[in-house]
Amino acid sequence: MSDQLDTIRSLAKKTDSKILMVVLDGVGGLPLTVNGDSELAAAKTPNLDALAAQSQLGQVELVGAGITPGSGPGHLSLFGYDPLKYVVGRGALSAVGIGVKLAAGDVAVRGNFATLGEGRVVHDRRAGRPSDAKNAEIVARLRAAIPEIEGTPVEIYTESEHRFVVVFRAQGGTPLGAGLSDVDPQATGVQPLVAQAHDEASGRTAALVNAFVARAEAALAGEPQVNGVLFRGYSDVPHFPSFDDAYGLRAACIASYPMYKGLASLVGMDVLEVQGTEDALDGKVQALGQHWADYDFFYFHVKKTDSAGEDGDFAAKVKKIELFDALLPQLLALKPDVLAIVGDHSTPSKLATHSWHPVPLLIHSEYGRKDTAARYTEEEAQKGSLGLRRGTDVMPLLMANALKLNKYGA
């Protein structure tokens, strides 16, 4: 464990208090014009405003100044795991999240279905966000076309919308390396990249990935929209200290997307079953209420704030924020002893991608000091009493506000 996790583990104590961490994925934003409103500021959020007036606010940098975090590092940081020490590729998170077991030497990779135009130029990195049913149809076609590559078994799984997972299984006791570059250029108007190995152990994996890309494009040549694949986030089997061991908390995850369930599972949270759609969020609230007596800590994930930001749709992101605001009274009715609302990264609609900007943090508890912030927005969070914090500071603050930490030293 890191020094901070070791310290928290030595101070943690069991109490009856409950902590609810709400992660509004990609919630941080930017104004479309200078001195304009961000998505949070433009949204009508009477419930968040009322809560902010009774809470402590601040800002969080998930990895470091100027560093744009992926969803995995962002969440690890919020859970108290230094993302520069505990490194895991998105492929493993997605694989574990959909129940795929990884063995030593296997490599998992997260894929995007994409739309390629003439000259293999990327027109849409997400292929128009196809339905889950269309995703499953394409995955079935790829399974038939690519069951193996030169003797290496290949497994292909549906995740959701444009996302899928590929697992390359190690054979004959020779492990596959996960040190290779992305195929996804994370831009349009350019060709997919060629995977390059960063070390000798990953040379075989790079060859497998490049062969998969070529065979997938051949298999999907007749598709007008879903006709290419982009890879990023290679990972072998990760290992983390358990959440319970670090904090002494019975922890539960309430999420819909496999990657977030996978991450929670890797740190030892119980992943609760959620009914209904991500847009409605009703199933998540229902799961939270049903299991409220069973756990000390709940991680409640809201995805669509990020999706709207990635689509560059300012108005849609505002709407997703307002939908969460309407839901907030149901969470408050459970009377959590500590409620945190935070993002795992910023996804400004203006950039249509993740960004380096700090995310606003709200902590509500009986033991907060008076704060001048009046709304849950980026601008108001800059005024807050919590100041600018590292992501790994969030869990100790929540533990302290829940009175779950003993005094340090004599």
In short:
This protein has 410 residues and is an alpha/beta fold. It contains 14 helices and 14 strands.
Overview of the molecule:
This protein has 410 residues and is α/β, with parallel strands linked by helices. Helices cover 31% and strands 19% of the residues. The protein has 14 helices and 14 strands. The strands form 2 sheets. The protein has an 8-stranded mixed sheet with strand order 10-9-11-1-12-13-2-14, with helices on both faces. Strands 3, 4, 5, 6, 7 and 8 form a 6-stranded antiparallel sheet that branches. β3 (107-116) and β4 (122-124) form a beta hairpin. α11 runs antiparallel to α12 (314-332). The protein is globular and about 65 Å long. It starts with a helix and ends in a 9-residue tail after the last helix. The model has no long low-confidence stretch (mean pLDDT 93).
